Amino acid sequence: MGLFTKKIGPVFLKDTSDTAEFIEKMQKLKERAAGDTRKAVEKQISLAKYGEIGENNVAFELKSSGMDMYILHDIYLETEALSAQIDYLVITRKHIYVIECKNLIGNIEIDNNGNFIRTYELFGRKHKEGIYSPITQNKRHLQVLKEIRKESKGNFLTKMLFESGFDDNYKSLVVLANPKTYLNARYAKKEVKEQVIRADQLIEYIRRTDEASKNATMSENDMLGTANFFLEKNKSERSDYARKYEEMLATVNQPEGKKEAGVKEKNETKADNKTKAETVDVGEKFSEKTSNIDDVRQRLKAWRLEKSRSEGYKPYYIFNDAQMEDLIEKNPKSKEELLKVSGFGAVKVEKYGEDILKILAKRI
Fold it and tell me: What SS3 class is residue 346?
């Protein structure tokens, strides 16, 4: 930092998240639920609360850092093909840190292939399991940031300069927020090991990385401009994950006769669909008439999986679960209406719109 650089300290431009609202909605659902539905709701509340504790631990470290930084908590960004929910975006004088917060129970081991293995005890028994790599998850977040920021550059030259310097300026960090978690990354490759740290190591890591960097020092205006750019791109209206439990309750709370009929009808529909799926093409085999939203959801997932396999993409490249829920809620009838659904731009609508509309059109 220069001799006359003004000290600004850590500044949260966005310090709220959707977690508290989600927990409140789920608590209300819990009061009306029973049986397996109540257990499912309770599980979601427990997971949300645990995740919130982890994010609060990271927030405490950032607020106590004493470093110049602008911080955005819980932002949701979209491109034509991808979306990203980022726990923390931290802009310092030297870098933009993309932080994925994990509040995991148990200990984490990372092997030399980059696999994440979690070991924990439950009811006196030791469990060992692989988990989805948060590094891979954060890599997708970085790709979304890159595409959005690159698009804002004025011409080919500035786009090229931005892209060439992206890896030096944007840093991926996975932060293990549970203070009881033991991290064993002894056999992990260096590039993997450097991206995973404990929450109590976060500030020292940022300080050390910034001090070693040869990047130009950003002014306060540059830092604030970058933070505000991404804040403006944040999508405040997201699909509501609590909605699927509302739908479950609508079924659970039906009179017994209706409920049994509904289950029978659903089972018959599944059997019919399986038979028909063997004889018709993609786009048609997922479009038989149905009055059940869960069936629509399953047909969309099945179509997404088959399409992603045929094209060699991950399923979420076509649409993720949040976008699918928005799709089901808005139930578009045309490509023009489909453009208004979260995550569906002109390219994606032109490529996939016809198949998706066929599936939705059969909903009674």
Answer: helix
Amino acid at 155: N
Count of domains for the chain: 2
- Poorest-confidence range of 105-109, 302-306, 317-321? 317-321
Q: What gap in Å lies between CA 219 and CA 8, rounded to an integer?
A: 11
Sign (positive or negative) of CA dihedral 38, 39, 41, 46: positive
- Measure the CA–CA gap between 117 and 136, rounded to whole angstroms: 14
Instruction: Tell me the backbone φ, ψ of residue 338, rounded to 5 degrees.
Output: -65, -30
Residue-wise pLDDT tens digits, 247-286: 555 554 444 444 444 444 444 444 344 333 333 344 444 4
The answer to whether the CB of 297 falls within 8 A of the CB of 243 is: no
Query: Could you tell me the residue range of the domain that residue 195 belongs to?
Result: 10-233
Please check whether residues 225 and 326 belong to one and the same domain.
no
Specify if 1 maps to a domain.
no
Co-location of 102 and 162 in the same domain: yes
Q: Which two tokens stand for residue 8?
A: 């600004």
Look at residues 203, 233, 263 and tell me which one is the last residue of a structural domain: 233
Same domain, 206 and 117: yes
Q: Tell me whether residue 241 is in a domain.
A: no
The verdict on residue 273 lying in a domain is yes
Q: Largest alpha-carbon pair distance within the chain?
A: 78
Q: Tell me the pLDDT tens digit for each residue of 15-33.
A: 888 777 778 888 888 888 8
- The span from the CA of 45 to the CA of 212, in Å, is 42
Closest CA to 58 of 171, 144, 174: 174
